[in-house]
User: Which sequence fits this backbone?
């Protein structure tokens, strides 16, 4: 084999290893960022669920207050 072919094979191997390493690093970073985003979405959804529950409780409380106000008005008459 000539020196040119040996140099070309070494360059090919170096390029392949460099490309593979870059793809692997990029994949790990993407997975990490997706995991963090999923965590944020889960936290947001938890807040939304709790807000919905509190809104329902407020509706019930407001309805009870209205009933008590009406009962108080009837007693005063």
Assistant:
């Amino acid at each position: 084999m000539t020196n040119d072919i040996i140099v070309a094979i070494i360059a090919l191997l170096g390029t392949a290893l460099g490309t593979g390493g870059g793809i692997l690093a990029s994949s790990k970073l993407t997975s990490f960022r997706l995991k963090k985003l999923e965590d944020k979405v889960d936290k947001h959804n938890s807040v939304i669920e709790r807000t919905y529950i509190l809104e329902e409780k407020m509706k019930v409380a407001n309805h009870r207050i209205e009933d008590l106000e009406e009962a108080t008005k009837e007693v005063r008459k």
